[in-house]
Amino acid sequence: MTAVAAVTASPAPRGDDVAAERGSVSIAGALFGIGIFTLIGLVLLHGQSLAALSRTREAADNAARAGAQQIDTDHLLATGEVRIDPGLAADAVAAYAANLPDLSVTEVRVEGPTISVTVAETVDPITGLGGSRTFTATESATALRGVTGAID
Question: Could you tell me the CA-to-CA distances from 131 to 48, 52, 89, 141, 148 in Å, in that order?
Fold first, then answer.
């Protein structure tokens, strides 16, 4: 005699089994929603930091250009050598920075025909993630007075 294995199909779910599964999709949906909102918050935070760096880079470039236009005319007439007047350059950088309320000039350094300007901006991003996540974006720029061609 050969043995035959009995195969039985599982019965259709009864009302008690369906009730036990109720709410599992809600939990998965809630976790998915939290993950999506966290991801959106991180993308916004990164975008705000890139925008702040772009603003400070542009401000540093323009402030350095404004300072580089301030020539020490007495020195130029006496020696024929072009150099930037440190006092006038600092005043020009401060006048430019006065138009940018969220930015601050942290350093102005003049060495002969070269001026370097460092600008900073403190950003308090809107993330919705709670807590304070302020950061400071800092950029520097250097302008060289009297360049007429490419610098090697």
Answer: 16, 20, 40, 33, 50
